[in-house]
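Researcher: Re-running this chain for the archive, since the previous output was lost when a drive failed. Same request as before.
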Amino acid sequence: MICNWLNCCEEIKKEVVKLARIKENYENMLTACESERGALMKKLEEKEDKVQELILDLHSANAYITELEQKVAKLEEKLKEEKEQEEQEAKWEKYWNNRHPKQHIEYSGRSFPKDPKRRFSIDVRYFFAPSQPLYELVEKNKLNTGTYDERALKCLKWVMENFKYQGDKETFGSSEYWAFPCEALYAKKGDCDDGAILLANLMLCAGIPYWRIRLNAGDVKGGGHAYVTYCRETDNQFVVLDWCYWPNTKPISERPLHKEEQNYYGIWFSWNQKYAFGRMETMARMPDHFKPKKKRWARCVTKIMKS
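Model: Regenerated structure tokens:
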């Protein structure tokens, strides 16, 4: 009986040892799980931080996208306005370039340096001759800033302040001489046509569209005259920009229309950089020294150039 009891005790001891080992294993496993859980929790926290960063980045990206969309909308609106403006410019350019008959007009306002009496005719459009010195002057004096109307007035003021009226005989040694713009710029003096040609070319170099700038030869109070007219932005109508006859610095928008000016009468002919204009009846009233030689006169006043 005692032996059985002892055997039973031994068995119990073995089970206890076995259970202790199982408990130790479970405790080790639990410790490992806790450790792994801690590592996972740490990773989870790191992931959460990254998620928060991504959320912030996403908000920033959304804000940036919204900003870009607003900029794109503004650019599209600006492009739309510019397109409409270009269409309007093209419409008025076509209108004014076809408002009067186009002519091939040559003027005998040039002469040989050593023989002033030997004069020759030249296409009036060649007096639009923008060049580097003119562009540099425009840039230096900031004549190319602001609206077209503001640029036109700046150019007029510059010529009025820096170009002196003096007859062709004293300046160029010829009774009638139309100076190219660079010649007028270097001379810094000349008569009405020289200053007008210089003014028109400064306006062209300042970025004003060619069709808005016209040189005119015609009758004014006191005789023949050459001067600039400008098609202003306000109403796309022409106003006078005269540097020497009745000069003034009124804002472009406040000037009377060319056709309403009391001191300016009929135009013999006018021209821009691309086209010359004139009606036969008005060109016939030009003084003789404006007219080409008889052999060329009929062709000059009747040859209409195609657009």
